[in-house]
Amino acid sequence: MATHDEDGTPPALAPFARDTAEHLDRLVARARPAPDFAAMLARARELDPAAVPADAVARAGVLPPVVPLAPGHGRGDAGALAPFTTALKAELDGKLAERRLASIPPAPVPGRRRLGVVFGVVAALAAAVLLAVVGPDLVAERAGERGTAAALDGAGGRHGEARFGGTTEVHTDGAAERAADRNDMSQETVTNVPQDMPKTTRESAPEDMSRGTSPTVDVPDETRPRKALAKDGPRRRKSQEDAAPGLSLEDEAQQLWQKGELAAAERKFREILALPGAGARAELAYGDLFALTRQLRGGDGQAAAWREYLGRFPAGRFADDARAGLCRRSPADARAACWQDYLEHHPTGAHRKQADAALAGGETP
Amino acid sequence: MGSLLQLLRPGSAPSASEAEDREAELLHRARGGDIEAWSRLYQEHFDRVFRHLAYLTGDTAAAEDLVQETFARAFVGLAQFEGRGAFAGWLRGIAVNIVRKHWRSRYRGDQAMDRLEVVSAQSSVGTDADPEGAHLRQRRAEVLLAVLDTLPAQLREAFVLCDLQDMPAPQAAAELGISPGNLRVRATRARARIRSELVRLGWLTEDSADKERDHGDA
């Protein structure tokens, strides 16, 4: 009788199979290639031009390798998180009320009530810890869904965040970075609660890739998520009274954009660019301007925004994509030099394969 | 405390059916020409397809090229996906076909054998080596990959799916487009070929091979 399953790996081969699988897993983990949707789509068009219209390739060409979340993405997640966020909010609201009452001299409390207070403090600590753990992810998720600059304004300068075409994705790679995020969240526990997370149903930012083709779940304005007061970095350290009224420039720009007032939205974003010391906010505003200028003035307008951005942030978070985008748009006789320049700036850039291919003469359209 | 208990209560994670529904929606939109939906599918499946290709080729650089080709071909052939199976499985099936072409284009039997001899010679069996040592594990992996490189494609892919990826036979058979019985035959032949090569190269003894053959025949 066989000592092993006839269909399974024989014992003598098992160590080889196990070691090989582990070896391959290590290689895979080490390789971690960056997805390049634009290059893939260009290849698809080569295979079947009828299946992939040229304009689709052109539109994808301006997308970054990390594509924005599709409308509807995360709805299930948000729904699943609703009980958590609602309960957490209630918990934190309760603690906030307690803190507001803290200046009133406490009346003597019987032992049982004191015990309740102790439980309350424990609950508050647990909630704070929970928020520190899930908070950054909630904010990242929400930002991805809503695609608003202000959603991550306070964290706008963090490395690893990328926004494209009116949407934002956050990659918190390093442990230290994540820890920093958690510290931020825990220090600003109350005002950073993404209160309206469960209500989010669609990306609010216009996204030219999806126009006319994506069935989106539209919701009335009044049901759209309002920004938490804490979103605006400079404001969130002020008192609640100071921060309450008014919208941030990002809010206003997004609202104008949603209403279709593109030129006015652009002016608002440019106001952000003009703010003194608006480094991270300005970068994020450029992220929106890339898509907005394309809607307003087409590819040339977008390329102008890329150039403007690179002039101001030559090593910024969007520099890789902006340079690659300019190379794709550059005249044929200047393209090789452009890609060469790209490789010099971004030797390990996300578009290096396309750059290599272009320089080798096998460029995709 | 009640709300905290509610916070910690399990069971609110998105269900598998929700994920399937979302993917079905994305597929529906992608079929309608929605590039953004396709980009989302691409992003979600990229890592898994890449890993699958790395296993099939044993070469992450090749896998990096082939993963793009896989998605490009899937994109232009999306209308052929009938949705009866999992989209991930359909993608892996395309990946297998791409790898077969890749093997056909680069496979040179004599070169693979030469490479096997070199790898095996560099990787001394080392009777006094720590059997669980990292060095030995690395050598075993290199030798098996080199042996796999010498196998015909249909045996190699059967072994990779069944023995390296531990894929259930029905799933592996479906992805290779063959019957489970056929898969079993191929996997058995692959194991026999590998074992015999490892014996020839001194990595296994005849005894262990005979013993296993006896077990297998019993």
UniProtKB/TrEMBL annotation, chain A:
<keyword id="KW-0472">Membrane</keyword>
<keyword id="KW-0812">Transmembrane</keyword>
<feature type="compositionally biased region" description="Basic and acidic residues">
    <location>
        <begin position="199"/>
        <end position="210"/>
    </location>
</feature>
<protein>
    <submittedName>
        <fullName>Uncharacterized protein</fullName>
    </submittedName>
</protein>
<keyword id="KW-1133">Transmembrane helix</keyword>
<feature type="compositionally biased region" description="Basic and acidic residues">
    <location>
        <begin position="221"/>
        <end position="233"/>
    </location>
</feature>
<feature type="transmembrane region" description="Helical">
    <location>
        <begin position="115"/>
        <end position="134"/>
    </location>
</feature>
<feature type="region of interest" description="Disordered">
    <location>
        <begin position="148"/>
        <end position="248"/>
    </location>
</feature>
<feature type="compositionally biased region" description="Basic and acidic residues">
    <location>
        <begin position="170"/>
        <end position="185"/>
    </location>
</feature>
From TrEMBL, chain B:
<feature type="domain" description="RNA polymerase sigma-70 region 2">
    <location>
        <begin position="41"/>
        <end position="108"/>
    </location>
</feature>
<dbReference type="InterPro" id="IPR039425">
    <property type="entry name" value="RNA_pol_sigma-70-like"/>
</dbReference>
<dbReference type="InterPro" id="IPR013324">
    <property type="entry name" value="RNA_pol_sigma_r3/r4-like"/>
</dbReference>
<dbReference type="InterPro" id="IPR007627">
    <property type="entry name" value="RNA_pol_sigma70_r2"/>
</dbReference>
<dbReference type="InterPro" id="IPR013249">
    <property type="entry name" value="RNA_pol_sigma70_r4_t2"/>
</dbReference>
<feature type="domain" description="RNA polymerase sigma factor 70 region 4 type 2">
    <location>
        <begin position="143"/>
        <end position="194"/>
    </location>
</feature>
<dbReference type="InterPro" id="IPR036388">
    <property type="entry name" value="WH-like_DNA-bd_sf"/>
</dbReference>
<keyword id="KW-0731">Sigma factor</keyword>
<keyword id="KW-0238">DNA-binding</keyword>
<dbReference type="InterPro" id="IPR013325">
    <property type="entry name" value="RNA_pol_sigma_r2"/>
</dbReference>
<comment type="similarity">
    <text>Belongs to the sigma-70 factor family. ECF subfamily.</text>
</comment>
<keyword id="KW-0804">Transcription</keyword>
<dbReference type="Pfam" id="PF04542">
    <property type="entry name" value="Sigma70_r2"/>
</dbReference>
<dbReference type="InterPro" id="IPR014284">
    <property type="entry name" value="RNA_pol_sigma-70_dom"/>
</dbReference>
<dbReference type="Pfam" id="PF08281">
    <property type="entry name" value="Sigma70_r4_2"/>
</dbReference>
<protein>
    <submittedName>
        <fullName>Sigma-70 family RNA polymerase sigma factor</fullName>
    </submittedName>
</protein>
<keyword id="KW-0805">Transcription regulation</keyword>
<feature type="region of interest" description="Disordered">
    <location>
        <begin position="1"/>
        <end position="20"/>
    </location>
</feature>
